[in-house]
Structures are given as C-alpha cells and as structure tokens.
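Predict structure. Chain length: 90.
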Amino acid sequence: MPGHNHRVDIDHTGPEPVYLQIADIIRGRITEGRYPPDAPVPSIERIRQETGLAVKTIRRGVGVLAAEGWVRIVPGKGTFVTPRAQWPER
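Prediction complete.
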C-alpha cells in the first residue's frame, strides 16, 4: 500500500468477507517482504483511501492479523509487523 496510488481490488460479491480480504492482502505483503518485521503497516486512513472501505471493516481485518500474530497494534503509534519468529506457521 505504501507508494501506490492505485486502488486495491476487493470482491464485494464473493464468499470471503471483505475484512478477511484486507487481512489477506496485508498478510501477503508481509510475507513478500513489502512490510518487513518491525516496520509500520500503512495507516487505517491510507488503507481506506486505497480500498474505499469503511474504517470499521479495515480495523476488523487488522484485528485478525493482530490476533494471528502478524502485527502488533500500539495505541497512539500505529500498527507494526511483528518479528518473523512470532509469525504463525503457514
């Protein structure tokens, strides 16, 4: 999402909930190294601009990643990729 001005394609009619699609996109960018360990994940607002989705939906997707151990949410600071050793088995 950083450095990109194009919109992300979200399938609003498919079987996978939109918040899980956001989680999948961010998770993929983490595993590809686009968001390296300890790096910040783009802000909710940045993701909202890129996807056109509601803030609540994006927060839910980021929450999934936090629950899985991919990211940590630091109130007032942002969301950061966790160290690789903390990532779940894939």
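Summary: The chain has one domain: 18-86.
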